Description:
The protein is mostly beta strands.
Amino acid sequence: xxxxxxxxxxxxxxxxxxxxxxxxxxxxxxxxxxxxxxxxxxxxxxxxxxxxxxxxxxxxxxxxxxxxxxxxxxxxxxxxxxxxxxxxxxxxxxxxxxxxxxxxxxxxxxxxxxxxxxxxxxxxxxxxxxxxxxxxxxxxxxxxxxxxxxxxxxxxxxxxxxxxxxxxxxxxxxxxxxx
Length: 179
């Protein structure tokens, strides 16, 4: 694959969307704006981070969890993870939940990511490419069940598009990775 590592940085994926309130998202593995730890990369085992959130709006009916890399050298970036229909009783996900939910979040399910898998895909920018940013987001939705036209096979873009008008708040945590 040929790509220009000096291309302009992609825009922030949420800044051009309608503004919504924010709430708190933290992770023991991610420090905002800092390098992601090796274990969150594809090379390091592709373990999803522990995520914890609080202060979502009282009107929240479910959550959508996503991880998106806008800097992938392909149109539309790369969706690493989409976890749909996370119930409001859930205020966090354990480390490696992207691979092993084990019924921890009863109604939640993963939809297909950009690789064609149904799990978290670790950070894996092409060797020698620019720093990639990974936006982990918890979207507070005003619906209890996101009506996806094709269920788990719905494309990441369609999941994001379907969720957008139902997003009442969003918490974002970004870390970078480069090989």
